[in-house]
């Protein structure tokens, strides 16, 4: 797969995730609290993030790390580690908020969900820049 094709696919995954985040943010800021819609968005995001992680590891980070290139391989391993850390943070978030009624914990849930959205957005932006540099180095 060419670097251009990889970046195009990365952008497609990210666009899907960013769309879900935008919908989730609207739900969190809406005057009416819709717990079922929030749960659906949470699970939709989980599926999209898992697909994105699988793509990045299989198609980007693992092949570059395996290449042994002294400049690129360590960067690929670092990016993969950061991806895994964000994934673990998201899994902990899903486990916590899937086990309770978010409406009963709204004062804690809403800011936590908004922080998670910001964290994922920041990660995606940083990862896009660094992956582009990795693939074009």
Automatic annotation (TrEMBL):
Q: Where on the tree of life does the source sit, at the highest rank?
A: Bacteria
Name this protein carries in UniProt? Hemerythrin-like domain-containing protein
**What is the protein's species of origin?**
Sphingomonas lenta
């Amino acid at each position: 797969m060419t670097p251009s094709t990889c970046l195009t696919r990365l952008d497609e995954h990210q666009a899907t995730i960013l769309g879900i985040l935008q919908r989730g943010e609207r739900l969190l800021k809406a005057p009416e609290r819709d717990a079922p819609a929030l749960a659906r968005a949470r699970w939709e995001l989980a599926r999209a993030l898992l697909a994105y992680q699988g793509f990045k590891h299989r198609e980007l980070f693992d092949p570059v790390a395996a290449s042994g290139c002294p400049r690129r391989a360590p960067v690929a391993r670092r990016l993969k580690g950061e991806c895994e850390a964000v994934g673990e943070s998201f899994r902990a978030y899903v486990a916590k908020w899937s086990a309770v009624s978010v409406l009963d914990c709204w004062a804690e849930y809403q800011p936590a969900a908004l922080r998670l959205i910001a964290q994922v957005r920041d990660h995606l932006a940083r990862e896009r820049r660094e992956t582009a540099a990795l693939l074009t180095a």
